[in-house]
Structure formats: structure tokens, C-alpha cells
Amino acid sequence: MTEADAHMDFDLELEPEDLEETAPETPIGDPCLVVDDLHVVYRVVGSRARKEAAKGAEVREAQIKPSFLKRLVSAGRQHTGGVSEVHAVRGISFTVRHGESVGIVGVNGSGKSTLLRAIAGLMPPASGSVHVSGEPSLLGVNAALMPQLSGEQNIMIGGLALGLTPKQVEERFDEVVEFAGIGDFVYLPMKTYSSGMAARLRFAISSAASPEILMIDEALATGDAAFKARSKARIEEVRQNAGTVFLVSHSISTVEAMCTRVLWVHQGKLVMDGPTHEVAESYKEYIRDQRPPGRRGPRAGGRAGARNGGGKGNARKVGAQGQPAGS
Ligand SMILES: Nc1ncnc2c1ncn2[C@@H]1O[C@H](COP(=O)(O)OP(=O)(O)OP(=O)(O)O)[C@@H](O)[C@H]1O
């Protein structure tokens, strides 16, 4: 695998179960989420700084302006002495309404998961704000689950964290296990699960309580066709009940099948926001252009119209800076 391939870890292929499918139209309600000029910064203490700290030294942040070469190589990471700052989300703003299912796409490391975690309240903003009506369900479940406990115990804890009663959790137990497709693994500690199994169980628990805002991070990539079909039905159920769904996925066909709107994030910035087909076409074109010439595959028919402002013309390209090359 080349370095370019490793960076471009997506699935552009349309899978049989996604053919001819798009997210159905549902009436869109009032705003339920406002993200306003959001910035999220990770701070990582370098190994040298940790050693110094262990020796009792005061580790201070040195505000050294890095050289041009260093900034070029570190793309988005700002080194300040022993502490490295990763500016993962850089000034993102958007509003989401009840009934929307929003896909978040972007290349590896572009900030998708960080954005989702910030919306869920798991990452504090460095600046800007997130206003949510209702509690995003990833928050309750992720905060509650414990790797050393069995799936069974975690279903109970996660269900309680989402506001279900113990009786309601018991009633929904079989459905959650079946939905996650983890079989008898449910009786083993979650630390023995593959990342896909854990992601599916989190999704199954978080969607068990008919949440107002359902957040799904990559869980759909880890299941088979039957799991995807169950997931799609569950997403529709949430939307029909005027809930909102956020979906992070590397599979553009999954996003096309399940989302009404797509946010394209690149290097922590929002580069495009609009109806699924318009953003997906531009994104697919960008990904194709990043691949070596022999591996680009055919272009989708009619994509140029969307890219040049055709189609419904509703997609919003955001800002000139930080856009992928060629857009
Ligand atoms: N816990 C962390 N500490 C420090 N940096 C982090 C941490 N998590 C993510 N990052 C950095 O933040 C940036 C955005 O990462 P994030 O995981 O949000 O991207 P992503 O688009 O979800 O990536 P992927 O598609 O690979 O899952 C990357 O540069 C990543 O290295």
C-alpha cells in the first residue's frame, strides 16, 4: 500500500444493498443544533516533556514559532516546546434541523470524529460553541461503557445512562444483541471485542432509547449487509420521530444511502455543506483526483454539473482557505 493509499482509506464503490437507494425525504423541522465557529485543540505532551516532568522539572509551554519547513511537515500540528498542539477542528459553523441525517466525510485525520465528539460534548471547544437541544446519545453511552465489563453489563449501564429503566433495558436486551450481531460475545468483557464489534454494540445501545440525536461513528463500516439494512431502518425511525442523525463513515455509498445532507471536512475545516448528491459527487471527484492516474476508475456521469454549481445548487462551499487542491 502506498502512502497515498493509506491516506485515502475510503470506499467509493457502490455496494449491492445500496444500489438505487437514497435517504427518503422527510419533513425538516426547527433547528436542534447550532455549531458556531468551533475550534478543538488536542494537547499532547511529548515523551521528552514527560521525562522532564517525571524528574520533577516544571514543564512549561514554550511559545516557539516553528520554522516554515516544520510547519509544512507537521500540517495542522503546532509544536510548542515539549507540548504538541493538534488543532483538529478549525472554525466550523453549521446549523442542523430536526429530521436531518447528516453524513460527515473527509480523508483520514481530517477531524470527522473530533467534530462528532465535540458535538456530543465529549471534547471541550478551545473556542466557539455547540448549542444542542436534547442529549446526543453517543455522550451517554460512551461515557458509561466500561471495557472490563461484559457486553451484557454494558447494555444495562448504557441503557440506564440513556434514561431507560432496568425493566426497559431487560425488555430490549435481545434486540440490542441481535442488532449488534455479537452473539455470545455479549457475555465476555468488551475489551475482548474487535473495534467493529464494540462500535456496533455502542450503536445498538445508543439507538435503543429512541434518542433525539443519534451519533454513529464508523459502526456501519463494520457490519454485514443485514446489519446495514437494520441500521438504515433504525436511522429512518429516529428521523421519522423528528430526531437527528450524524453519521461518520469512510464509505461514501453508505453516506449516500443514509444521509440527506453531507458535511465535507478537510484539515479541520468545513469545505462543503449541502444536499448529499452534490457534496458526494464533489468529494468522489476529489478522492479520484488524489489517486495515481492508473487507479482512478471511471467518473460518475453528470458530476460536473453539481461541482460547478449545477443540480439543485444548494450546496455551500465554505471559505477559500483550507480547501482541497483543485476545488
Ligand atoms: N487523542 C488525540 N490526541 C492528539 N491528537 C489527536 C487525538 N485524536 C485525534 N487527533 C488528531 O486530530 C486530527 C483529527 O483526528 P480525527 O480522528 O478527528 O480525524 P478523522 O477524520 O476522524 O480521522 P479517521 O478518518 O482516520 O478516523 C488528526 O490530526 C489526529 O491525529
Task: Please give the structural blueprint.
Blueprint: H1 3-7, E1 31-45, H2 47-54, H3 68-74, E2 77-80, E3 83-97, E4 101-105, H4 112-119, E5 127-132, H5 137-144, H6 151-161, H7 166-180, H8 195-206, E6 213-217, H9 225-240, E7 244-248, H10 252-258, E8 261-266, E9 269-275, H11 276-290, H12 303-307, E10 316-317
Parallel strand pairs: 4-7, 4-8, 6-7
Antiparallel strand pairs: 1-3, 1-5, 2-3, 8-9, 9-10
This protein binds adenosine-5'-triphosphate.
Question: How would you describe what is shown here?
Answer:
This protein is α/β, with parallel strands linked by helices. The protein folds into 2 domains: 215 residues, Rossmann fold; 74 residues. Helices cover 36% and strands 21% of the residues. Strands 6-7-4-8-9-10 form a 6-stranded mixed beta sheet, sandwiched between helices. Strands 2-3-1-5 form a 4-stranded antiparallel beta sheet. The radius of gyration is 21 Å and the shape is globular. The two termini are 26 Å apart.
Spell out the helices and strands N to C: HEHHEEEHEHHHHEHEHEEHHE
Shape: globular
Bound molecules: adenosine-5'-triphosphate
Roughly what fraction of the amino acids lie in strands?
A: 15-25%
Alpha-carbon distance between the two ends: 26 Å
User: Helicity range of the residues?
Assistant: 25-40%
What is the class of the largest domain in the CATH system? Alpha Beta
Helices, by number, come to 12
What would the keywords be for this entry?
6-stranded mixed sheet; 327 residues; 12 helices; single chain; binds adenosine-5'-triphosphate; alpha/beta
How would you concisely characterize the structure shown here?
36% of the residues lie in helices and 21% in strands. The chain is of the alpha/beta class and 327 residues long. The model is unreliable at 1-14, 51-64 and 300-313 (pLDDT under 50).
